[in-house]
Amino acid sequence: MTSPVLDVRRLSVSYQTGRGTLRALRNVNMTVQPGRIVGIVGESGCGKSTLISTIIRLLAPNARIDGGSIEFMGRDLLSLESEAMRALRGDGISMVFQDPMTSLNPVMTIGRQMTDIQHRDNRSRADKLARAARLLERVGIADPAEQLKRYPHHLSGGMRQRVAIAMALMTEPALLIADEPTTALDATLEVQIIHRLRQLQQDFGCAVLFISHHLGVIAELCDEVVVMYAGEVVETGSTREVFLAPRHPYTRKLLECDPGRIEESTRHLPVIAGKLPDLVDLPKGCVFRSRCDESIDICARKPPELEGDDHCAACHVVGQ
After folding, report:
1. Domain check: are 83 and 200 in the same one?
2. What does the alpha-carbon distance between residue 128 and residue 115 come to, in Å, rounded to a whole number?
């Protein structure tokens, strides 16, 4: 078996707050194999953003890595010096953010930004512009040479996101991280971006870590899925297995809340009763127990471990 592009083991991250230590991530395990698209899904506050911020080493000043390891192409990211990590961002690991207007410079043309991102390349400016135009064409933007002269506000939301994807792929990274890149788009554009991203991933051969709260997007795009809840990984497996035969009660409830599964008209959308646990004052045992309909005695005493072969779940009930 080939070595993984990204291998996260027992990663724990906390934030120092006025109320005390907020344990944002606890013993997170995750692997991304070459050429695969891995989706991370979960409610707001489950730790998705903290996880990717830790991977690229851009954490808030009050954050602390309490333990674990992150290996990228065999290199331990947590032990790299700042200069080495900075060199790795963009070349080895690229990122597409949720809102392209926050990642594109509003006072610089698209062409200027796409040539500046090639600053490590010794090609001429003309060659860099030609390469940028080719990338824009590959992401589905018509008349790319003309679009390079425009500013971000001249483009639609879908075109701006395509530009952001083209810029992320320009260095042909081994790992592309996409942080909810379709959230700000309407449904039609969302489908187009998903299909385009899948095609580009196959063309470039990079691995993709795709973060989303949209279950339909995860089902359409990803080969594997990681389900997170309150800072922990509660279920992992192939997208088909997790969606067709979910093992963790949280995953089942999450799927039941998907509007795409509602067959009859209703004024009330399904929700998961209860609320996320306080990460400053974590409950004993399973963190999902207060919202679970299937909990048993051991759930109140002992946190479950993520167990299984290819399809894993952190649940005492599954274990029995």
Report:
1. yes
2. 6
What's the pLDDT score for residue 240?
95
Count how many domains the chain has.
2
Tens-place pLDDT, residues 142-154: 999 999 999 999 9
Q: What is the pLDDT of residues 4-55, one digit of tens each?
A: 999 999 999 999 999 999 999 999 999 999 999 999 999 888 999 899 999 9
- Domain stops at, among 170, 203, 218: 170
Domain that holds residue 139: 105-170
Residue 99 within a domain: no
Residue 228 corresponds to which tokens in the numbers above? 């997170």
- Give the list of residues 6+ apart from residue 300 with CB closer than 8 angstroms, or none: 284, 285, 286, 289
Contacts of 203 (CB under 8 A, 6+ apart): 138
CB 285 within 8 A of CB 299: yes
Which tokens in the block code for residue 208? 């993709």
- Residue 98: inside a domain, yes or no? no
Note whether residue 1 is domain-resident: no
Is the predicted pLDDT of residue 194 greater than 60, yes or no? Answer: yes
Task: Decide: 52 and 96 in contact? Cβ < 8 Å.
Answer: no
> Average pLDDT of 252-269?
81
30, part of any domain: yes
Tokens encoding 24: 């944002």
Same domain, 150 and 249: no
Instruction: Tell me: do 166 and 245 sit in the same domain.
Output: no
pTM: 0.90
The DSSP H or E segment spanning 191 is helix 187-204
Query: If pLDDT is split at 50, 70 and 90, which confidence band does 318 have?
Result: confident
SS3 108: coil
